[in-house]
Request: fold
Amino acid sequence: MQNANATRPEHGPADHPKVARGKTGVLLANLGTPDSYTYWPMRRYLNQFLSDKRVIDYPAWKWQPILQAIILTKRPFSSGEAYKSIWNHDIDESPLLTITKAQTARIEETLAEAFGSDVMVDFCMRYGNPSTESKVREMVAAGCERILFFPLYPQYGGATTATANDEFFRALMKEKWQPAARTVAAYYDNPGYIEALAQSIETAYGAMEEKPEKLVVSYHGMPIRYLEEGDPYHCHCMKNTRLLKERLGWDDTQLVTTFQSQFGPEEWLQPYTVEEVARLAREEGKTRIAVIAPAFSADCIETLEEINEEIKESFEEAGGEDFTYIPCLNDDDAHIVALSDIIKDNLKGWIG
Reply:
């Protein structure tokens, strides 16, 4: 079947056969989502996630027996309950999937205005569906001769950005005719991204009668060992907070950087969010705080359940009274503009 993009070359003779016109693909990537919060879908998802050597780098002979025999017999139940509490039941999917679809649609509209039909925009997940491999295959089949791969993680991390890139390159390995490929670098210091974050805080604070006494800037955690082995994630997080503070015109007393989602026996980046919010209430007498999570481009289990339920509970049990979670940037206008501008910049030399 002839490719729908096939046209006669501009300088070819009248009888020249039509040839496929090369398209450029933009593939957005996020962490992933289970297909359901029930046991077996949760187990499949967790098995894929926790078997990733970028996430848990223990030797397989040591880690897999623990994972298969202990963790995956219990954790699908507890994680499933957490997912069930935030699930988008109306359309039977996780909030992360719903939001990523919305982001993709809006970015697609923005790029179509700039480049017409020359750019194909889609999204994939590192774990779960839609898989990276399936979306790379679709783009190649659609005539994409170039693919820009965009991991939606503002700060670089081996367990996030790197493993997403790994999966993208593994998918390319299966293509007979590989498209040209680029990956988007971390964008924690991008002015548009910082502006979008700042605006979200200003909007949230502007709607409050009483302003929070402290803003907790909570990032996903990481074992300290990874930092010592050369992962720049911690440095990116700290600079992200500094740039945000400078844009807001605040001083160090008005916000604190913390880390959440610890897993396993190792020491992780500190202070831990769940402990810091309790300390703010118990030791500093803070009764009003707000929490924002710049490491996540879309609200997910770590924000909607962990922050807005577990971490909130820790603050309130320690004496806190007013807890505000400031949502991720999601498909906010300023966020879509920032992401689209980053994409346009990375497409230079290919298109536009």
The mean pLDDT is 95. The beta strands are 6-7, 19-20, 23-33, 119-128, 144-151, 180-183, 214-220, 255-260, 288-292, 322-326. The domain at 191-326 is CATH 3.40.50.1400 (Rossmann fold).
